[in-house]
Amino acid sequence: MTEELFRDDSYLKSCEALVVSVDDGGIELDRTVFYAMGGGQLGDSGRLRRTDGSEIEITDTRKDRDTGRYCHITGDARDLRAGDRVTAQIDWDRRHKLMRMHTACHLLCAAIDGGVTGGSVGPDKSRLDFDLQDTALDKDAITVKLNQWVDEDHELEILWITDAEMAANEDLVRTMSVKPPTGSGRVRLMKIGNQVDLQPCGGTHVRRTSEIGRLEVGKIENKGKHNRRVNIRLATG
Predict the structure, then answer these.
(1) 62 pairs with which residues across the strands?
(2) Could you list the residue range(s) of the whole structural domain that residue 136 is in?
(3) Rounded to whole angstroms, how far apart are CA atoms 42 and 38?
(4) How far is CA 189 from CA 97, 197, 203, in A?
(5) Is residue 5 assigned to a domain?
(6) What backbone phi and psi angles, to 5 degrees, belong to 145?
(7) 19 contacts: CB under 8 Å, gap ≥ 6
């Protein structure tokens, strides 16, 4: 299994790695700083630099749900073989925007009292869908609340609990469509401040809410009898 270095440190931009396998599905490494698409967050892009200095562009990162194989997607592996050593380097500017937006989505989740039925985390705009019936959402009020938490500069902290503790605290899960992965013995939680938000999450996040920058709430759409889609975007680059 690929060692996912970003789980403990989202700010790692590169790492040395060994190629495990190469095929049409992509390049598998023994360790990586690349986040694979999941939990609504897009997979990382970037490059692999070989020992001779040549580079291979990585356009996406995916993890096979059935096998657990961690694939760095490319259109040209250039005769890369198992056993080769490479330096894996993410597109940091894009990743950092994804980190800001993912943390912003957690704030949005905390601002609206409703189960999350779906979502998408992108580098410039994101959305969450909420299970709400006959509930009016005030776009301006939500914007004020989000930016209040940004200005208050809350710290983010990674916590780990056991699978058993997760099973005994199912109310921590806000996402109705995606359940936290269990089976490895522990589940990662993201905590924002003392009382802002706490929920299972395997994505990448900033260290403090002030790092997100100003946020804007876009359209609030009806997507069915119970679904309300709330769009947010970064007001600053």
Answers:
(1) 71
(2) 95-234
(3) 7
(4) 21, 10, 10
(5) no
(6) -65, -45
(7) 27, 28, 29, 80, 81, 82, 83, 84, 85, 86
227 and 116 belong to one structural domain: yes
% residues pLDDT > 70 (the chain): 97
Per-residue pLDDT tens digits for 126-174: 999 999 877 789 999 999 999 999 999 999 999 999 989 998 998 888 8
Q: What angle do CA 156, 201, 191 make, to 5 degrees?
A: 25
What does pLDDT average to over the chain?
Answer: 92
Judgement on whether residues 125 and 187 belong to the same structural domain of the protein: yes
* pLDDT at site 177: 67
Let me know whether 147 and 224 are in one domain. Answer: yes
Contact 166/145 with Cβ under 8 angstroms? no
User: Which of the listed residues 36, 66, 90 is the one where a domain comes to its end?
Assistant: 90
- Give me the pLDDT at residue 183, please: 65
pLDDT of residue 25: 85
